[in-house]
Amino acid sequence: MGDQIWVQPTLKLVTSGALQTLLIALVAAALSIGLGLVLGMLLCLPNGRWTNPVRWILTAYLQLFRGLPVLVTLFIVFFVSPSIGLRFASTLAAIVGLTLWGSANVMEVVRGAVRSIPTAQFEAVTALGFGWAPSMRLVILPQAQRRMIPPIVNLTVDLIQATTLASLIGVVEVLQRSRQAVEFFQLSEGDGHAAPIFAGVLLFFFVICFPLTLLASYVDRRRKSDPRPPKRKTSDKVVESQTTAV
Questions:
Q1: Dist. CA 38–CA 29, nearest whole Å
Q2: Three-state DSSP state, 215
Q3: CA 74 to chain centroid
Q4: Considering the domain 2-245 in this protein, what is its CATH number?
């Protein structure tokens, strides 16, 4: 048992890093999905005098942060933002950087899902007197959401994996803790136990990410195998609108 004395302190050290990783991943994923859904819907605004500038700004945001590697975004948030008066602690900088990157990708998912709905759907609800917001809420989004779920789940997996890059801006997450443990035991015992320690890191990410990839595949298969459109809640309102028009 004496040669296993390294196990307990390593588990304690790596567990603290794992909790930090989960915190960053959960907060960044929630903010990315929430912000991306809102901005993605605004990106689908119809052409208009005041909507065009909004869409141009959102398009620039999307193209900028989708085009930047995650690591560059993290460096910009952590190292460049102080020059404009914004200073973030390393953990907060990681959350902000991942949210910027993730929300831009969610925006593109939302835009693609909305544009995949046949144009006849928009024309039909417009002919019945619905405005843009009711049309999106009651007709378009219920159909588009089934197409959004698989790529958003896959994006969440990418965000979880990208948390390992946060160690490069000073975040002590699971990978950084594992490296510290390996370096400590390498110097103190001559054996860093790298294989079992990094195997544990691999298992940690596998346990979190693999169920999510299975969920995305399952939802995608269900969507493709079920040709029925989602139930709409607009039937009563459509009938009422038609009755009023008559």
A1: 14
A2: helix
A3: 15
A4: 1.10.3720.10
